[in-house]
Amino acid sequence: MTVKLVVLYTQPADSAAFDEHYLGIHVPLVHKIPGLQRFEAGKITAALDGGEQTFYRIAELYFADQAAMDAAFGSSEGAATAADYGQIAPPGSRMFVEIVDG
Amino acid sequence: MTVKLVVLYTQPADSAAFDEHYLGIHVPLVHKIPGLQRFEAGKITAALDGGEQTFYRIAELYFADQAAMDAAFGSSEGAATAADYGQIAPPGSRMFVEIVDG
């Protein structure tokens, strides 16, 4: 039963500065999180529903189960990643837990 | 350069009825779409940011590139899936294109 942390980043004021911090500092922190099974991230390029392009980036962190995710964010590496998220996430960014269909 | 269609379904009025249609009819239609490389879907169980649990489900359809995605939704199978999406997606559901970081 795979569990994912899904992060939806809203549009940053300065996307070049955001990407520099995100790719250079934040993603390396994510990869240090214990129990992380897979990381996938990317840029939103279009809203297909005719609505606003609300989000700039999506990031997905995969864990074996909820306990592994809880342990991950209880670790010092998880805390460092969360603190850095607080530095970079534009207002209105969202963070959800998803249980992947088995 | 993987391209994903990311669908965020808002909370349905009747989640049991939604799941019955989604899993029984919609997902089988998705799997018929030509060029689909991977499909991943799951249920949102929590909002970790203290905000509203805006979304009920996330679905991600992976394609080799933008041209493959365009061809997929230009096909009759893609059109059938899009029509069925129109039947089930609760108001406010969102649909984005994401280019996965290489």
Description:
2 copies of one chain form a homodimer. In chain A, strands 2-3-1-4 form a 4-stranded antiparallel β-sheet. In chain A, helix 1 runs antiparallel to helix 3 (76-88). The mean pLDDT of chain A is 97. Helices cover 38% and strands 33% of the residues of chain A. The termini of chain A are close together. With 102 residues, chain A is of the alpha+beta class. The A-B interface holds A 2, 4-6, 23, 40-49, 51, 53-55, 58, 93-101 and B 2, 4-6, 23, 40-49, 51, 53-55, 58, 93-101. Strand 4 of chain A pairs antiparallel with strand 2 of chain B, so a sheet runs across the interface.
List strands and helices in order, with pairings.
Two copies of one chain form a homodimer.
Chain A: E1 3-10, H1 15-31, E2 38-47, E3 55-63, H2 66-74, H3 76-88, E4 94-100
Assembly status: homodimer
Number of E-state strands of chain A: 4
What sort of overall outline of chain A do the alpha carbons produce when their principal axes are compared?
Answer: globular
What is the helix fraction of residues of chain A, given as a range? 25-40%
Sheet with most strands of chain A: 4 strands, antiparallel
Strand order of the largest sheet of chain A: 2-3-1-4
Q: SSE order of chain A in H/E notation?
A: EHEEHHE
List low-pLDDT spans of chain A: none
How confident is the prediction overall: mean pLDDT of chain A?
A: 97
Q: Most extensive interface: pair and counts?
A: A-B, 29 and 29 residues
Q: Classify the secondary structure makeup of chain A into a structural class.
A: alpha+beta
Rg calc of chain A? 14 Å
Number of helices of chain A: 3
Residue fraction in strands of chain A: 25-35%
Instruction: Calculate the terminal CA-CA distance of chain A, rounded to whole Å.
Output: 6 Å
